[in-house]
Amino acid sequence: MCVLPANVVYQYLFLIFWGGLVVTVVINVISVLCAISNLCFIQGSYRNLLATSFLRDEPAYSEIWRKSGTSGRVILQLIAKNVNPKIFEHVLNELVNLLRESERKDFREQGQEEEEEFIHPDNELEFEDTL
What we know:
Elements: H1 4-40, H2 42-53, H3 59-67, H4 69-82, H5 85-110, H6 121-126
């Protein structure tokens, strides 16, 4: 019994699967490089976050972005992609207020002047009734 025809078919199947594996590895390497560049280039990913959530470039948002660290930036990006932009803007405003409150606490301990609470002009009227 000759097994040569079966070996020829298996050889071509092996080449097809091997080529698919190579393509998958290349795509995964590109994906990892894109994720690493997104984490390393803070300003570019900040602009991407603003574009995703339709926000204006506020100094307070930039401050939150810089002080949140790598894991915080990943979480903020996930929230921005999966939440309504108005809700994300409200979350950022709350984070700014929490950051300012912690800084006030530090200033009180050091005896320095306090800053005003940050309220975004668009959210000032909208969330005033809920308080």
